[in-house]
């Protein structure tokens, strides 16, 4: 079998175009411009790259983008005061605090100080609880992007056997909740799972969110299964020249693609969908804040 490649880059461009259309309508019909504030504490180079590209894409879809760059030694009180200010700013509909935070800051306290209605990352404990109980919430961007791709590819995923490898709060657990919400039979695997190969072989849908390069070999994949590779791992690539690197996912792409019915590549799969879903969440939050109908197809 030759797998269909699920093109996350192209899909993300479609989602961003949809978001841009909603932003235009919000501006033209209601005089509202959705606003996203991103808070970065410290100078982590990878975080700076993410924040820059989030800001650029926010502006490209017509939304207001606000960036707050704080010194690495910013006190918790100062960070909480900024979040309070953003919570009360009517022009800001989404707030994202870039993680990880420097060690002296309590991540849970900071995330839970964001107004849940503006929590476009979906990490606030209220949103976690709402998602867990099947209620309307802000949904974490990466799993939301995975769900959108699965729905787009399959139409309905109801009744399918899904295995999520990884149980983190930002990917694995919310992914499992979303699959359950769409009536999959869900197994969550992790580092203590016995016979992971056997568990994965039963799955119609495999979502790998582990952080271990090319860990899932093709012979774990059931013929025709759909493989969603969340992993982003950077490996040395001396064949490309001295000091060069390449990105790989958590599944061994070549061997998995030989057995899967559909697969997301790395790069160009889940990654681009994450930022697109952040923009989608911001427009959703803006509509909810203003009592307007939510855009269809951009939420869980
Ligand atoms: P975490 O490190 O928080 O979680 C990893 C999970 O994998 C844990 O639950 C861990 O199990 C499990 N695990 C580790 N080793 C094994 C193993 N040998 N067998 C089975 N399970 C194992 O990672 P994240 O969830 O934050 O991220 C996962 C990957 O997704 C990373 O590569 C990350 O870079 C990527 N990512 C990509 C995003 C995107 O936009 N595409 C966004 C977010 C993350 P246990 O709990 O038992 O330790």
Explained architecture:
This protein folds into 2 domains: 29-117, Leucine Dehydrogenase, chain A, domain 1 (Rossmann fold, 3-Layer(aba) Sandwich); 141-271, NAD(P)-binding Rossmann-like Domain (Rossmann fold). Helices cover 40% and strands 16% of the residues. It contains 10 helices and 11 strands. It has helices at residues 8-30, 45-60, 76-87, 107-111, 125-132, 141-154, 172-181, 196-201, 253-259, 270-289, and strands at 4-5, 35-41, 64-70, 94-97, 161-165, 185-189, 205-208, 226-229, 233-236, 245-248, 262-263. A 6-stranded parallel beta sheet has the order 1-11-8-7-5-6, sandwiched between helices. It has a 3-stranded parallel beta sheet with strand order 3-2-4, with helices on both faces. Strand 2 (35-41), helix 2 and strand 3 (64-70) form a beta-alpha-beta unit. The longest helix is centred in the N-terminal third of the chain and has 23 residues, at 8-30. The radius of gyration is 19 Å and the shape is globular. Bound molecules: NADPH dihydro-nicotinamide-adenine-dinucleotide phosphate. Residues 142, 165-168, 170-172, 189-193, 196, 209-212, 230-233, 270-271, 274 line the site of NADPH dihydro-nicotinamide-adenine-dinucleotide phosphate (NDP).
